[in-house]
Amino acid sequence: MTRIHALADVQSSYIGADTQVWQFTVILKGARIGAACNINAHCFIENDVVVGDQVTVKCGNYLWDGLRVGDRAFIGPNVTFTNDMYPRSKQYPEQGFPQTVIEEGASIGGGATILPGLIIGAGALVGAGAVVTRSVPPHAVVAGNPARIIRYLTPDTVAASE
Fold first, then answer.
1. Taking the model in full, what pTM does it have?
2. pLDDT digit string (tens) for 27-38?
3. Rg of the Cα trace of the chain?
4. Which of 30, 46, 60, 70 holds its CA 20 to 30 A away from the CA of 9?
């Protein structure tokens, strides 16, 4: 059963089964949220956003137009997504906003910043506070400003974290 807190403003009819939306969260009409997700308090999800199944979005996240989040991804608290490399008031990209993709099973630590148009690869791990300026390969662990690959997850380390 989908659970939407009475103090949430959910305008989308595309909310999957067994998804929970907490208080003070706004989900706009065009957004698509998968099944068994947990969308925590104080989040904002724009129209052109697609969230897969079993995704966790912790408190304080704003998911802007163009974001695609794969199944079983984790977005830690207060992650900053951007969708315009050259933002100006009341000026929008002619071709629309670039698509940023968080692939299946990727995890983004709290306070990280993700620039627009990047891909965070399947199973990748972005360290807390990292500033991601380039796409991240699958199973890579990145940290720092700018984020750099510090190692790769192996099947043993992936299994241990599940």
1. 0.93
2. 999 999 999 999
3. 15
4. 70
**Domain extent listing, the chain:** 3-161
Distance (Å, whole) CA 131 – CA 127: 9
For 12-38, b/e burial (b = at least 16 CB within 10 A) is beebbeebbbbeebbbbeebbbbebbb
C-alpha 77/C-alpha 112 separation (Å) is 9
Q: Which of 93, 69, 91 is nearest to 81 (CA)?
A: 69
Architecture of domain 3-161: 3 Solenoid (2.160)
Q: Can you read off the two tokens belonging to residue 52?
A: 């897969």
pLDDT digits (tens, 9 = 90+) for 105-129: 999 999 999 999 999 999 999 999 9
Question: Which of the four pLDDT bands, split at 50, 70 and 90, describes residue 99?
Answer: very high
